[in-house]
Design a protein that fits this description.
The protein has a single domain, classed as Alpha-Beta Barrel (TIM Barrel), CATH 3.20.20. It starts with a helix and ends with a helix. It is globular. Strand 7, helix 3 and strand 8 form a beta-alpha-beta unit. The strands form two sheets. Strands 1, 3, 4, 6, 7, 8, 9, 10 and 11 form a nine-stranded mixed β-sheet that branches. Strands 2-5 form a two-stranded parallel ribbon. The protein is of the alpha/beta class and 248 residues long. It contains five helices and eleven strands.
């Protein structure tokens, strides 16, 4: 294990202690491209400046936890930092209450561990828009996953912008970062104060990174943050648009 791995073990987050983003995420480049469920070819990307976060599987929560693995091909250059992303979706019949929750959580954790054990990944990221009634289930799932996954592997989650501003509930989660999502957030925008164009980030876990898209407005204050970018129309169509937007 390298020096950074030992450092990650030393400062690995534990539940109950409020903190900002972990230094474990500093191994990643400043820019990460999300590669969702479509064919993507990123072989022309410079791996010294850009990482890839690819959708590895989608876990659906119903009576049981089931997995839909990635179906579309993905190409990337040798040496690119890779983040395995797991999307969690609650089906119509899922309830965060009841006697089956412990077994359902166990099933979901085992599926997440499959992604966490992919060879040569730099981090694991979970994407779950948990409702208020699902937060207890999600918190328990993250805590159990953290205890069982490789101890030097960073754990990231995506976060609704509201979770990072006025809706204070993620601060004690044992994760290395929470990525505030500043796109496709129309319901949250309706709850924001009328005089603010976007939310003010207050949660320390959310201060080190931000999630944006290629075809929506970008928030201010991106300098110094890790930027995760979603391609609305796929990277074959949106990479040139991203490069144009990033030029001064």
């Amino acid at each position: 294990m390298g020096t950074l791995g030992l450092l990650c073990l030393t400062v690995r987050p534990d539940a109950g202690a409020r903190r900002g983003p972990s230094v474990c995420m500093n191994r990643l480049p400043h820019r990460t491209l999300w590669a969702w469920e479509r064919p993507e070819d990123l072989t022309g990307i410079d791996p010294s400046t850009t990482a890839v976060a690819w959708l590895d599987q989608t876990i659906q929560l119903g009576r049981d936890a089931t997995s839909q693995p990635r179906r579309q091909p993905l190409s990337y250059p040798t040496g690119m930092a890779k983040i395995a992303v797991v999307r969690i979706e609650a089906l119509a019949g899922f309830s965060a209450e009841g006697n089956r929750n412990a077994e359902l959580e166990r099933q979901a954790v085992q599926l997440l561990l499959d992604s966490a054990r992919r060879p040569a990944i730099a981090a694991l990221q979970i994407d779950f828009d948990a409702t208020r009634s699902q937060r207890g289930f999600y918190s328990d799932l993250i805590s159990d996953l953290r205890r069982q996954m490789p101890k030097d592997l960073p754990l990231s989650i995506t976060a609704l912008a509201s979770w990072c501003s006025y809706d204070d509930w993620i601060g004690n989660l044992p994760v290395d970062e929470a990525v505030p999502m500043f796109f496709r957030m129309e319901p949250d925008r309706r709850l924001a104060p009328a005089d603010l164009p976007q939310f003010q980030i207050r949660e320390p876990l959310c201060l080190g990174s931000v999630g944006i898209s290629t075809r929506e407005a970008w928030p201010d204050g991106l300098i110094g943050k890790r930027i995760y970018v979603f391609a609305d129309r796929g990277w074959q169509r949106d990479l040139a648009l991203l490069d144009k937007r990033e030029k001064p």
